[in-house]
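tool_call predict_complex ligand=flavin-adenine dinucleotide
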Amino acid sequence: MQGQQITGLHKPETVAEALAALSDLGGGGTVMAGATWIMRAPFRREPMKPAYVSLAQIPELHRIAFTQAHVRIGSAVTHAQLVRELQAIPELGGLVSAAGDSANPAVRQAATVGGNLCTADFAAADLVPALLCQDAEVEILTMEGRQFLSLDAFLGLRERLERAYLLVSVLVPRRPLASAHARLPLRKAGDYPVAIVSVAVERRPDGHMRGAAIAVGSVEAVARRWRGLERAVAGLPLDASRIHQLALDLADEFVGRDGPEVPGWYRVKVLPTLVRRAFATLQQH
Ligand SMILES: Cc1cc2nc3c(=O)[nH]c(=O)nc-3n(C[C@H](O)[C@H](O)[C@H](O)COP(=O)(O)OP(=O)(O)OC[C@H]3O[C@@H](n4cnc5c(N)ncnc54)[C@H](O)[C@@H]3O)c2cc1C
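tool_result ok
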């Protein structure tokens, strides 16, 4: 951080105070959640902001609440907390696995759901595909008011949102699903994954799939649903080998992003294997 100075760390105790601080700072400040992305700015050759608005002391952002319709996850809930508090909820197995396998134990104690979803340049974020295939919504607060957006829509416009915005919570609908998460880290635990596949499946009484949501992360710049494969597998038996074959046929729907760790074609090449792994996990249950 040589030559870069943070002049202000604001520690509001309510969401309204946080928003007011962000608004006052204008372009001179931004949100700080777990800081696991922010602290690596110098490695990415990005400048630090002069000021940050910490979410650490806003209790409502650190809570997970359950209603009949939703699981509401406060934006400052950490990956470790997700694992602790959601591991008994069968339909969220994929999200728990995404949170529990990402990064390393120390980072998981700090990194938050909000940071994962709001970091526009982080293609390899694990929670994004896991929440995309749950049809999650996000609650966004700006000086103009509160709005709820599908996660998909939020990902499309997060870079264009005005600076003074706060992701307050993530709403995950409660449905009778089974879900799983498969990722390919390149070398060792803690590396960003080369490719990610998250799936959520609703089964019919005969065991066939009523529908499957399949989301792909880290392959392209922004995670997205694999609609072609979703259409192809709807109504089929939950058979990982058969779905793997379909994934091989349809993988050219993706254009992989080149990166320092691997070329783009490699990310696409490993996708069908991850699809097979994710569905095989569901087959075992
Ligand atoms: C070595 C290492 C390896 C990692 N590997 C992985 C991995 O494999 N998979 C994975 O998913 N994660 C991984 N992470 C963690 C990753 O950095 C976080 O998941 C996430 O991207 C940042 O979360 P954070 O809470 O630390 O956010 P911060 O660093 O505090 O903030 C990141 C950005 O989001 C904005 N922001 C944060 N919260 C909000 C909010 N509520 N509203 C509006 N804007 C907000 C900030 O202003 C900032 O621009 C890794 C981290 C490290 C250090």
